[in-house]
Amino acid sequence: MRYFERGTRELSVYRLRQELEYFLAHSPRQPAPPGPLIVIADAFYARVAKKRLTVYLSLLRPVHGTEAVILPPTIREGAESYAGWRVHFAMLPPPIDKRLVAAVCDGRTGLVALVRERGLIVQRCHFHLIARLQIKRSKRRGSRHYAEGVRLYHLLKIARTAPAPAARVARDELGIEAHRAPRGLRTVLSGFVLNYADYRAYRRYPSLKLPITTGSAESLISSVRELLRQLRGVRTCAALERWVRAYLKYRRTIRCNSQQN
After folding, report:
1. What confidence category does residue 261 fall into, taking pLDDT thresholds of 50, 70 and 90?
2. What gap in Å lies between CA 203 and CA 210, rounded to an integer?
3. Residue among 36, 91, 57, 15 nearest 241 (CA)
4. What average pLDDT does the chain have?
5. Are strands 37-48 and 100-105 parallel, antiparallel or unpaired?
6. pLDDT bracket for residue 260 (50, 70, 90)
7. What gap in Å lies between CA 51 and CA 152, rounded to an integer?
8. CA 208 and chain centroid, separation
9. What span, in angstroms and rounded, lies between the C-alpha atoms of 192 and 49?
10. Which one, of 176, 181, 209, lies nearest residue 193 by Cα?
11. What is the pLDDT of residue 10?
């Protein structure tokens, strides 16, 4: 589609709408990769016509590859939820659904619950975990809790990435820290200790070559937001859905590398 290729503003609104609808109706969709698949899932919010909408996105990456296919989005009114993710995953054709072996996600309760129901391996995003810790205890020099932030970050890194014996020791130390931490920090640390295994799925299942972040989905979301900014927003929910669907269909794939142990 010309708008995505050149960002041209020479087209009239009528002509642009025609091209958009033709592209959606007639352009082929990228087929799913062969073999066992990993799903990378994330969502973002958009406000249109005074309504809060959630756009559910997912990527399919083959176990033995680094190019993930972008699936059609699901857009629903309201906050991100289990029900929303259930609708989104229900769109997968059975032959593809049966080839899913693992999911990479940010740890949202509804999404994790759905993934577990489907019997998939869960790999929680390391970036989201680190970001939550940074909010509570920054390791930026000069910050109020600098020394504590550096120490906790170091323990968290060992617990996430080191071989099992050292990782378990670091996990137990973080559990002790959680008991004496103030409420917000305690939530971050105890949440990691409780879901420790999910952060280390990439080490427990090295043959799957799991990514340890949802970075590819986050990058895609950033590009969608930039598109909406260039469009100066959209006025209706239907327009939002058309533009997001068309853009994702145009992009087709995105690189999604695995963690190198």
Report:
1. very low
2. 9
3. 57
4. 92
5. parallel
6. low
7. 40
8. 18
9. 38
10. 176
11. 63
Average pLDDT over residues 182-204: 97
Residue 42's region, left for phi above 0, alpha for psi from -120 to 50, else beta, is beta
In this prediction, residues 213-219 reach a mean pLDDT of 97
How do the domains of the chain map onto residue ranges? 31-125+213-255, 135-203
79, 81, 87, 89: CA torsion to nearest 10: 120
Q: What average pLDDT does range 38-55 have in this prediction?
A: 96
192: closest CA among 259, 132, 117?
132
How far is the first Cα of the chain from the last one, in angstroms, to the nearest whole number?
40
**pLDDT, tens digit, 9 for 90 and up, residues 97-116:** 999 999 999 999 999 999 99
CATH of 31-125+213-255, one of 3.20.20.80, 2.40.240.20, 3.40.50.10700, 3.30.420.10: 3.30.420.10
Q: Please give the C-alpha separations between residue 173 and each of 7, 151, 192, in angstroms, as whole numbers.
A: 52, 11, 12
User: CB-based burial of residue 138 (10 Å sphere; 0-12 exposed, 13-18 middle, 19+ buried)?
Assistant: middle
Write out the two tokens for 95: 């032959």
Token pair for residue 167? 């990782």
Task: Please say whether the beta carbons of 238 and 52 come within 8 A.
Answer: no
Rounded to whole angstroms, the Cα distance separating 4 from 242 reads 13
